[in-house]
Amino acid sequence: MSVSEQARRPDATPYDRLAALGIVLPDAPPPIANFVTHVIEGNLLFLSGQGPTEPDGMLYTGKVGVDVSVEAAYAHARLTGINLIAVIQAALGDLGRVRRIVKLLGMVNAAPDFGDHPAVINGCSDLMNEVFGARGMHARSAVGFGSLPNQITVEIEAIVAFD
Hints:
The structure is a single chain. The protein has a 5-stranded mixed β-sheet with strand order 1-2-5-3-4, with helices on one face. Helix 3 runs parallel beside helix 4 (117-132). The N and C termini lie far apart (31 Å). The protein has helices spanning 3-8, 14-21, 70-92, 117-132, and strands at residues 38-41, 44-50, 98-109, 139-145, 154-162. By secondary structure, it is of the alpha+beta class. It has a single domain (3-29, 36-162), classed as CATH 3.30.1330.40.
């Protein structure tokens, strides 16, 4: 059985799928200002916005549609999704507790005439679907901003239901 076939098995765990994708979760990135990475209220986990931060702290910056391509920004959104999953792991202690990725809000540091925000944020959405299967299907908004903190290319926040 190939790695991708293993990941698509109905009984595959999020950890199986991460391994099949070759993803090793980093430590959850710390907040960059006066807030926490997450808040739990009932059975909902609210994740603060994460950005495209490498484990060594390097940030991807730039204006999508000017000096950053849609393809590069898609990869940045995927990296941001990995960071969101790292926060979920830190908050819940077990990705198997995720009942549903309920909602993503994707923000793109975009040129004023840029219009392909959904294609960028698909980097995170595709990852959530790959890692959590049907539980990764979510509602979503993808919007453009004139700037984001530290001029990062994307910032994404999430709401997660858990058991």
